[in-house]
Structure to design on (330 residues):
C-alpha cells in the first residue's frame, strides 16, 4: 500500500510499504480521508519529542473497516468509522497516564491507504458528515471539546473568547460553544478570518496584533468567563486582562511560545483559573462524537489534497494559510 514516510527532518515521500494484517483486538481501516494537525508539521520539522524514523504521520482518519483480528466481532467489517487518535489514556479522567500516546507517533498513522488500530478506538462515522468532514473531526474536535466542556466546564450564560480563530481546534471551540448557546467572540490577525467566524455564529472579533485590543474587547463585549487559547506567548497577559473575575483560561498549545512573564498579581486578585489541557479521554471522545451528531455540526474543511500532493498540504499548514482543517484523500 502507499503511505507517507518521513525518513528524517524535512524528508517526506510517498512510499510503497507492506500491507497490514490485524493482530488480536485490532482492525484494519481502509482510509477514505485523513487530515493534518500541527503535530504532523512539528514531526516533519524535527520539533517534536521522541522522534523516530521512518514514521507514517497522521492522527486523523475516517474510512471503512476491511479486516478484523482475532477477538474482534466480525460485524465491524464493512462499517464506516472515525478513529479516536488518543491511545491508552489510563484510568484517571483528570489526566492521561504514563502509557498515553497519539496516533501517528510512535504508531504508524493515517497518512496512508490503511491503518491498523485497536477496535476500541473506533466510532461510527456521523451520517451527516462527508468523508472529508469526518476525517477533519478527531484530534481537533476532541481537544476543543475537552477544553471547553471538561476542563473549563462552560456553563449557560457564560461568555466565551476563542483566540487565533482559523485553526482546527479554535474553530471547533467556536462551533461547540455556539451550539451550546454561548455568546462567542474571537481573535485573529486576519479580518477575513474574523468575518468567517462570525458566519459560523461568533458575535464578533478583535485583531490581537493591534495595541490595546484587550481594552477594545472589554468595551465592546465585556469580560469573558471562559477563554480558549492555543497561542500563549507575549499576548497571554492580555487574556488575563479580558477575563472575568473568577474566570477560566484554558490553553491547549503554545504556538507563540511561553510567556516571558506571568502577571501573577492579576491572576490572584481576579481569582483566575489557568487550566492546561490536551486531547481527551475516551469519555470526552464519545461525548464529542455524540454532540457533533446531535447538533449536526460540520467541521470546517479548508483545503483538500490527494495523497500524491501531500507535500503541498504540509506547505500550506507551514505558512498558516488555512481556515479550518487541511484534508488529504486516498
Amino acid at each position: 500500500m502507499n503511505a507517507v514516510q518521513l525518513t528524517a527532518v524535512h524528508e517526506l515521500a510517498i512510499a510503497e510499504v507492506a500491507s497490514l494484517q490485524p493482530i488480536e483486538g485490532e482492525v484494519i481501516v481502509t482510509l477514505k480521508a485523513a487530515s493534518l494537525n500541527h503535530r504532523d508539521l512539528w514531526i516533519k520539522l524535527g520539533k517534536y519529542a521522541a522522534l523516530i524514523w521512518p514514521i507514517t504521520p497522521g492522527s486523523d482518519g475516517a474510512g471503512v473497516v476491511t479486516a478484523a483480528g482475532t477477538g474482534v466481532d466480525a460485524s465491524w467489517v464493512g462499517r464506516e468509522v472515525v478513529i479516536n487518535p488518543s491511545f491508552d489514556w489510563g484510568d484517571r479522567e483528570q489526566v492521561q497516564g504514563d502509557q498515553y500516546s497519539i496516533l501517528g507517533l510512535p504508531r504508524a498513522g493515517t497518512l496512508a491507504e490503511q491503518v491498523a488500530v485497536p477496535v476500541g478506538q473506533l466510532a461510527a462515522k456521523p451520517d451527516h458528515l462527508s468523508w472529508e468532514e469526518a476525517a477533519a473531526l478527531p484530534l481537533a474536535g476532541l481537544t476543543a471539546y475537552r477544553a471547553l466542556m471538561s476542563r473549563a466546564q462552560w456553563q449557560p450564560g457564560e461568555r466565551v473568547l476563542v483566540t487565533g480563530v482559523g485553526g482546527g481546534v479554535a474553530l471547533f471551540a467556536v462551533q461547540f460553544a455556539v451550539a451550546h448557546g454561548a455568546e462567542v467572540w474571537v481573535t485573529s490577525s486576519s479580518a477575513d478570518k474574523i468575518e468567517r467566524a462570525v458566519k459560523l455564529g461568533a458575535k464578533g472579533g478583535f485583531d490581537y496584533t493591534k495595541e490595546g485590543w484587550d481594552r477594545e474587547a472589554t468595551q465592546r463585549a465585556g469580560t469573558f468567563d471562559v477563554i480558549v487559547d492555543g497561542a500563549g506567548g507575549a499576548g497571554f497577559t492580555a487574556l488575563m486582562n479580558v477575563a472575568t473575575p473568577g474566570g477560566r483560561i484554558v490553553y491547549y498549545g503554545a504556538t507563540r511560545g511561553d510567556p516571558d512573564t506571568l502577571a501573577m498579581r492579576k491572576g490572584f486578585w481576579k481569582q483566575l483559573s489557568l487550566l492546561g489541557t490536551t486531547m481527551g479521554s475516551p469519555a470526552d471522545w464519545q461525548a464529542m462524537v455524540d454532540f457533533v451528531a446531535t447538533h449536526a455540526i460540520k467541521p470546517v474543511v479548508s483545503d483538500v489534497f490527494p495523497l500524491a500532493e501531500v507535500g503541498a498540504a504540509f506547505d500550506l499548514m507551514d505558512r498558516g494559510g488555512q481556515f479550518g482543517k487541511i484534508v488529504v484523500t486516498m
User: Anything to note?
Assistant: The chain has ten helices and 17 strands. Residues 138-151 form the longest helix (14 residues). The chain has a mean pLDDT of 97. The two ends are 11 Å apart (CA to CA).
